[in-house]
Amino acid sequence: MRIEDAIIDLGDHQLLLRNAGEEEAEMLLECLKTTCGETRFLVKEPEEIDLTLDDERKFIHNQNESKQNIMLLGFVDGEYVGNCSLMGMEQGRYHHRVSLGIALYQKYTSRGIGKAMIGKLIEIAKEHQYEQIELEVVADNQRAIALYKKMGFEIFGTFPNNMKYKDGTYADAYWMMKRL
After folding, report:
1. CA-atom Rg of the chain in angstroms
2. How far apart are CA 15 and CA 114, in angstroms?
3. Percentage of the residues of the chain whose pLDDT score is greater than 70
4. For the N-acetyltransferase domain, which residue ranges apply (predicted)?
5. What is the spatial distance between Cα 86 and Cα 70, in angstroms, rounded to a whole number?
6. pTM above 0.85, yes or no
7. Which of 43, 51, 131, 163 yields a CA-CA distance of 20 to 30 A from 30?
8. At a CB cut-off of 8 Å and minimum separation 6, what does 29 contact?
9. Alpha-carbon torsion, ordered 140, 143, 144, 145, to 10 deg
10. pLDDT digit string (tens) for 55-111?
C-alpha cells in the first residue's frame, strides 16, 4: 500500500513518514539488526536476521504493492529513526483485522515519534475500513503498553512464555486491540 508522504509536527521537530524504496533495503536490514540488539522487546536476536538484500528488496516491493499491508519509514531532521507497519489479514473472516508493528532506534524513543506513527497507522486503517488493530507486546515493556493504552488499545489476553531468550529466560506477551 502506498501513501503520500506525511509530515507530522512534533513541536521542535517534524516527522516525515513515507513508503520505503527498494534501494533502502540495506538501511532497513541494518536498522532491524540494531534495534533487535538494543532491546529484548523485539522478536529476534540480531544474529538470527539472515535476510539477504534481495529478500528485503522483495519485501519492500511487496509491501508497497499490497492492498492490505503498509510499511512506513520515519525521518526526523533527515535522519532515519525507525519504521512502522500494518499487516492485513487476507482470509475472508479476518479481513476486518490488521496487525500493527513498530520499531524505533532506542535514542528516538520517548520523543512522541511512536505516538505519531501509531496515530498515522490508525488513520490509514480507518481509511481502509479495518475494524480493529491488533498487536503483541512483551508484558515487561511498560512504556510501550502505556503508550498503546493512551492510544486506545486494551489488553485482551496474555501469551505465557511467548518468547524464549538465548539465556533461557522467558517473557510473556499481551495481545492488545483497538476497535476502530
Report:
1. 16
2. 10
3. 100
4. 15-180
5. 5
6. yes
7. 163
8. 49, 51, 53, 56
9. 70
10. 999 999 999 999 999 999 999 999 999 999 999 987 789 999 999 999 999 999 999
Query: Three cell numbers at 134?
Result: 491488533
| Coil/strand/helix, residue 168 | coil
Write the DSSP assignment of 20-87 as a string of letters: --GGGHHHHHHHHHHHHHH-SSSSS-GGG----HHHHHHHHHHHHH-SS-EEEEEEETTEEEEEEEEE
Helix H or strand E encompassing 2: none
CB 89 within 8 A of CB 98: yes
> What type of residue is 157?
G
In what order do the strands lie in the sheet containing 170-179? 6-9, 14-19, 70-76, 79-88, 97-104, 132-138, 170-179, 154-164
Q: Are 82 and 20 in contact (CB under 8 A)?
A: no
